[in-house]
Amino acid sequence: MFICSCNGLTDKDVHAAVGAGATRPQEVYASRKCRAKCGNCVPGVVCMLRQALKEQKALAALRTVSEISADNGLYQAVA
Ligand code: FES
Fold first, then answer.
1. The domain spanning residue 33 has which CATH number?
2. By the 8 A CB rule, do 22 and 49 touch?
């Protein structure tokens, strides 16, 4: 889904940018070698960026729990 028609930025681009370490809107645009032009997309990019960062944080926490469970021999009991 396109979220920035000026630059052809998609939701997948936002997720890829977050996966590469982006935490700020301008880093999302920079990951595609562009920047906000008209600015209409900025609120949507911010919203999607926040959501992607939340998901990334939740996934990291889940991995930590899995690692702790595996270290304690609990993984097979849970899985
Ligand atoms: S829609 Fe993104 S800068 Fe115009």
1. 1.10.10.1100
2. yes
Q: What is the pTM of this model?
A: 0.79
> Ligand 1: which residues within 6 Å by Cβ?
4-7, 36-41
pLDDT digits 0-9 by tens, 4-48: 999 999 999 999 999 999 999 999 999 999 999 999 999 999 999
CA gap 45, 41 in Å, rounded: 6
Q: How far apart are CA 57 and CA 70, in angstroms?
A: 20
Confidence (pLDDT) at 46:
96
Q: Which atom of ligand 1 is nearest to the CA of 45?
A: 2
CA of 62 to the centre of ligand 1 (A): 35
Q: Residue 10 domain-assigned?
A: yes
| Atom of ligand 1 at shortest range from CA of 38 | 4
Structural domain including 46 reads: 2-70
